[in-house]
Amino acid sequence: MEDNAEINTLTEERDEDQQDFELPFFNISTMISATNHFSDYNKLGEGGFGPVYKGTLAMDGREIAVKRLSGSSKQGSKEFKNEVILCAKLQHRNLVKVLGCCIQGEERMLIYEYMPNKSLDAFLFDPAQKKLLDWFKRFNIVCGIARGLIYLHQDSRLRIIHRDLKPSNILLDNDMNPKISDFGLAKICGDDQVEGNTNRVVGTHGYMAPEYAIDGLFSTKSDVFSFGVLLLEIVSGHKNKGLTFQNNNYNLVGHAWRLWKEGNSKELIDDCLKDSYIPSEALRCIQVGLLCLQLHPNDRPNMTYVLAMLTNESVLAQPKEPGFIIQRVSNEGESTTKPFSMNEVTISVIDAR
Questions:
Q1: Which of 80, 312, 349, 352 is buried most deeply by CB count within 10 Å?
Q2: Residues identified as active-site
Q3: Residue 275's Cα: distance from chain center in Å?
Q4: Residue 175 maps to which CATH number?
């Protein structure tokens, strides 16, 4: 029966590098049928890898998400293989589950469990949708992301640095539980390896740690920095990049730091939460976020300690000025960007997705 052939084992016609893969393989015909020929109606969105489609498997009616490598994608076969190999080895409630892959001719696809609530950014930065994220849901999302990172950094069979943590890579299930996704840029570190370096800096503006963006140095503390940005975005409902705040020209990180110094951190909390949030938890999240954003990696806590700080009432350390505060300055009516941090490092060019 055709249904019985939908998931295949390796065959000789596939690429030699597939011997490294530990995921089930799907036929291209199965993917075409599941997505109705990759119709625009089934298209969920598009990322650095390529378009993502909703599909339904004929054999069991299971809903899936199909990520199809685009020919114009900045990510290529190397990133695809990286994600396939990693995802086969990772299992955690706060990581998206990969069901298999499809490799046939020039086609490269990853098949995931379908997340009906899509990604965090679809809620967090939409004026209407963000109202559905009450404080309980937001705090649960924060803690879930932290648990997922703890698994990646120390509890899995591998030590993995994600390198592209951002709201669009946090998927939400039926109960709004967070699932970290998109491991195309992730790096595996050895048990004794503290950090790595690269000449090819890839990631997303506004979430990259200073040492990574400038020097190509990455470590688990790079993910901690990204988590700090994400934490402030979840509390405030604002993006770090592309937005300046009334009465000052700072980005979100700079705005949060200014309010912290003035003792007015409550002003950072999303207005749509009104009086529904727990003040002590929200203020603790802001303080922990700033601690994650410290300029020097050694000054940032690890994710185990981050989760401990978020979930108990212990006394927290006082943060120093974060890295990558961005101030927009006006020159004859034109807006320019002036990046600076404690050591006044300026980024000139970053190769980012």
A1: 80
A2: 164
A3: 29
A4: 1.10.510.10
